[in-house]
Design a protein that fits this description.
Length: about 250
């Protein structure tokens, strides 16, 4: 069988095209693209001509079978989405699982990814984090999910569309409190790249006055450690005594 290559593409800056990205696109037999028009622009930029087929959220079933069939027949395929790393909050996850189930090799090429770029620049702890992707559209589900994250200690990352940002910030402030720190990473790698490091309460106020534009990754500080209870030596010894008696 052929190999499926996951080929990341720039999240806004064509300078982020890597040699390996370009070589892989040049070498594969065909490309599966989320939006063939977007990918055509990239191929034109690279002066490449390749057969393209569509693989997008609403045809993952039929599209997946079509790609798998060609891979099993020995062709190699590059999966490309509109921006960033395929399979991260965009079509691709299902295709990788399908290939894995059918014994087809998958090779992921490292490259641009909005979440890792945002985490790195956020100024918040990066050692442990949780990626939450896009929140549910449904207000009730979204709030319930955020409530369940209120005690999460790890840094949390969310993807968000600009027209939903204000509502999401309000929900975040309600669930985590207005003092929790947030880094709003906007238009990363682009001309109007901006990182706003503030609190949830201040972010709600700022964006109510200044309507958000562009693409955002929200990086939210985790919940504080519960304060350790200090006890005196006498209290400690009394506790040991107590345990001994039981
Ligand atoms: N697969 C992509 C990746 O690896 O980052 C993510 C695809 S997801 C459909 C698109 C979301 O990623 C946007 O809504 C936004 O939250 C985030 N995003 C993509 N490009 C961005 C950029 N240049 N700046 C900030 N956020 C970006």
């Amino acid at each position: 069988a052929g190999t499926l290559y996951l080929v990341p593409t720039p999240i806004g800056n064509l300078g982020d095209i890597s040699q390996r990205m370009a070589d892989t696109l040049a070498e594969v037999d065909f490309i599966a693209a989320e939006d063939t028009r977007v990918t055509l622009k990239l191929l034109n930029h690279l002066e490449l001509k390749k057969p393209l087929i569509s693989y997008y959220r609403h045809n993952t079933e039929a599209g997946g079978q079509a790609v798998l069939g060609r891979l099993l027949a020995g062709e190699s395929c590059a999966l490309v989405t509109d921006a960033g790393t395929p399979a991260i909050s965009d079509p691709g996850e299902d295709l990788v699982a399908l290939c894995a189930r059918n014994g087809v090799d998958v090779v992921a090429i490292p490259g641009p990814c909005a979440l890792i770029t945002a985490l790195a620049v956020s100024g918040l702890p990066t050692g442990r984090f949780t990626f939450e992707g896009f929140l549910a559209m449904n207000k009730k589900n979204r709030r319930a999910h955020l409530e369940s994250l209120a005690g999460e200690r790890r840094t949390m990352l969310f993807y968000e569309a600009p027209h939903k940002l204000c509502a999401t910030l309000e929900d975040l402030a309600a669930a985590f409190g207005p003092d929790r720190r947030i880094a709003l990473c906007r238009e990363l790698t682009k001309l109007h790249e901006e990182v706003r490091r503030t609190t949830l309460g201040q972010a709600v106020e700022w964006y109510a006055e200044n309507p958000p534009r562009g693409e955002f990754v929200l990086v939210v500080e985790g919940a504080p450690e519960p304060e350790e209870q200090e006890i005196t030596l006498e209290q400690g010894l009394a506790r040991v005594e107590e345990l001994r008696e039981t």
